Amino acid sequence: MTALRTIPLRGMPLVDTQSDLSREICAAIDREGEALQSGDVVVLAQKIVSKKEGRMVDLASVKPSSNAHRIATETAREPEMVQLILDESRELLRTTPVAIIARHRTGHVLANAGIDASNIEGGERGAVLLWPQDPDACARSIRSGIAKIAGVRPAVVIADSMGRAWRIGTVGTAIGCAGLTVVEDRRGTGRDLFGRVLQATQIAVADSVAAMAALAMGEGDEGVPAVLIRGAGRWVTDEEGAGAVSGVRPVEQDMFR
Fold this sequence. Notes:
Its EC number is 6.3.2.31. The chain is an alpha+beta fold.
């Protein structure tokens, strides 16, 4: 197997609604002295995609419902924040002072519906950032834009840091994906070292790539919102694929309720 390599894309400017993400990514790759290759994967932090979409909200502009006020009292949160979580979610699974666990409207389950104030200008004054409207569509659009500029169609993953059941800490997770196998199903086809046919192995490829990139990006003031992953070409496809949402476990298979 080819060695996997992460190349942090440094020096990208702060993103706003006028930014051209595809062009900025290509410029950052050039600054690193690299050229896009077939089989490359570009991983982007969710925040820069959300900023490009203008998904910033001022909490002062939100009008909380009575339900939001009730949950806010129970969880010691601002009712405006709770209202945004409700607006962005299909359902709330747990409401506690530590976190509100929500099933986001995209199907992903995570704390506070992915709404965050870190690394956002004005965050200390009540500005928060929502997830992109359609992360998979964003990944497809950025992939197409890069291909027009560079003549190469890398896979594109949009990643955010998410917690996991019964584990401490967050890990990079794919919330948008284009051109990459999301889950590689080895059941009935793969074999272990002793020739035994694999019965349950399904590899979360897109999430693994996102986790690898998240370590290179950092979670604080590193200023690295994008990473080029090289060596994952066996999972890169010419087709757009079903997107990151295809890796979400169906509600009827919920193992925790």
